[in-house]
């Protein structure tokens, strides 16, 4: 399974009552495929507010996205959690919805050791025929999937990729040691181009909601050997990459990108509690950032 170079971790649009806005979900999917050149979409990942989506909402989103995309891009279902048995069952149900792949975040809060992490991912992968992408994001989970454990998991037949947010050093080490066919994605927009230079295949992005077409251009320029052009594009996008998460103080994902999409005319609504929308000063910062793109 080739998920492509540019994967968007899609927000979940909500209406004014906080329920999923299905019309706007369809419109957003079209925008991400046609306008922002996404090769794949992650549905109900962290950016999609997975912690506050019910299981039935996730399954509805998976089926809806598959139907809306209609084969024009891959649909990757976020089915990971810190409960192995629940992730197994949700993964089976996601496969029945027709998704193309699975994204599994490292278990959060209960902080398993490396053997526990291995057995967690092994059990879920064994329950599906779908290709699996690991997701290592220690800043959110409190535990880091080591290079050695990632490479051990890469030996399993349907674990085909990882989304790596630990460090460029870890991206380098995994890319260097990975078996043929196993690929590494950066999970940090600001590290997308540096990660490509050390062996990453692509990016799982938040900023691609706003600037995906330019990010795709950056990736393609780098792959074509036009390194200076790729660097210029990276430099021009860097304020967006950083601003969506710092704006200017740290703001939890996806608060900033949802606000930015609303400013661009996509009615994706607010975030669900316990997340909150940007303050007035943060909103002003995001508007200025968008105006400068």
TrEMBL record:
Pyruvate binds at residues 47, 204. It comes from the Bacteria. The record marks 46, 109 as: Part of a proton relay during catalysis. Its main location: cytoplasm. Its EC number is 4.3.3.7. SUPFAM superfamilies: Aldolase. The keyword Magnesium does not apply. It is found in: Cytoplasm. Pfam families: DHDPS. Homotetramer; dimer of dimers. Catalyzes the condensation of (S)-aspartate-beta-semialdehyde [(S)-ASA] and pyruvate to 4-hydroxy-tetrahydrodipicolinate (HTPA). This is 4-hydroxy-tetrahydrodipicolinate synthase.
């Amino acid at each position: 399974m080739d998920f492509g170079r540019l994967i968007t971790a899609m927000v979940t649009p909500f209406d004014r009552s906080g329920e999923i806005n299905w019309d706007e979900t369809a419109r957003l999917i079209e925008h991400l495929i046609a306008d922002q050149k996404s090769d794949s979409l992650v549905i109900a990942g962290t950016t999609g507010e997975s912690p506050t989506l019910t299981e039935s909402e996730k399954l509805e989103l998976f089926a809806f996205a598959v139907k809306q995309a209609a084969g024009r891009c891959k649909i990757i279902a976020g089915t990971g959690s810190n409960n192995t048995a629940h992730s197994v069952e949700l993964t089976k149900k996601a496969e029945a919805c027709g998704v193309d792949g699975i994204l599994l975040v490292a278990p959060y809060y209960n902080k398993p050791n490396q053997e526990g992490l291995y057995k967690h991912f092994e059990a879920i992968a064994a329950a599906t025929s779908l290709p699996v992408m690991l997701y290592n994001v220690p800043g959110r989970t409190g535990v880091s999937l080591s290079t050695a454990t990632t490479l051990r998991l890469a030996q399993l037949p349907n674990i085909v990729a990882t989304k790596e947010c630990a460090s460029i050093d870890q991206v380098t080490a995994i890319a260097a040691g990975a078996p043929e066919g196993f690929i590494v994605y950066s999970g940090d927009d600001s590290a997308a181009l540096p990660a490509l230079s050390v062996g990453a295949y692509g990016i799982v992005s938040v900023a691609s909601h706003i600037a995906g077409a330019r990010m795709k251009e950056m990736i393609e320029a780098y792959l074509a050997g036009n390194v200076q052009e790729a660097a210029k594009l990276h430099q021009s996008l860097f304020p967006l990459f950083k601003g969506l998460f710092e704006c200017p103080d740290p703001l939890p994902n996806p608060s900033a990108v949802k606000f930015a999409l609303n400013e661009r005319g996509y009615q994706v609504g607010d975030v669900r509690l316990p997340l909150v929308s940007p303050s007035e000063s943060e909103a002003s910062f995001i508007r200025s950032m968008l105006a400068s793109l």
